[in-house]
Write a structure and sequence with these properties.
26% of the residues lie in helices and 23% in strands. The protein is of the alpha/beta class and 262 residues long. The longest helix has 17 residues. The relative contact order is 0.17.
Amino acid sequence: MNIIVCIKQVPSSNKVDVDPETGVILRDGAESKMNPYDLYALESALKLKEEKNGHVTVVTMGPPQAKAVIREAYSMGVDHGVLLTDRKFGGADVLATSYALSQGIEKIGNYDLIICGKQTTDGDTAQVGPEIAEWLDIPSLSYVSEILDANEDHVQVEMDMPDDIEISNIKYPCLLSVEKDIVMPRLPSYILKKDTKDREIEVLTLDDMNDRDENNYGLNGSPTQVQRMFPPESNLEQEIWNEDEEELTVKLFDKLKELKFV
């Protein structure tokens, strides 16, 4: 069984710089970590690898520093890593991101199953996984809370839907978007980290894709763009009132009205 896991490097805090013109997060040099939701996808793949004698490849898109999350994946037991990096990929919305990842996955080829985390902590759209499946023209399932079984031609999963629990069989090749807590992610292994420190990371740029039209990637290929992004305003102003109950009630109401809360 050949499994591909999509992972992403995300900012490790909300203190990030934003391009004032494009509204895009400036990732170069920012403190980063692996997207927490991707750890559950990764562990799901590694468990299947152990049970089915499989092979796990991770793919990520980002600047060269995103190799760090691939190194982390290697230290958890992943076999191969692919980085999609090109300035022409920068500033992509969910549509352009999913398209670039689908092109990278087509280049990798020979896969049975693609696993994605539910969403990312820097975007929270939960759209990239299903959109990858649409670009690849393969079936997909979301809200996967448990992988019940995997055989030669299909995988059986449990989905935690809003009103009930559903069980579904889906044929390969297919894509699963897994929920948080589907499994408990393992910790990186120091021994594996040492053993894989020189393992190759495959790097793909726009020139390696089947579709080399730069209008389909990055800002050029993004029909949606961030209009404005800014940190929340901090207000530490305080007032202390010592009036009686009736006066406090009127004063509180007037204050809420002044602040346009009522």
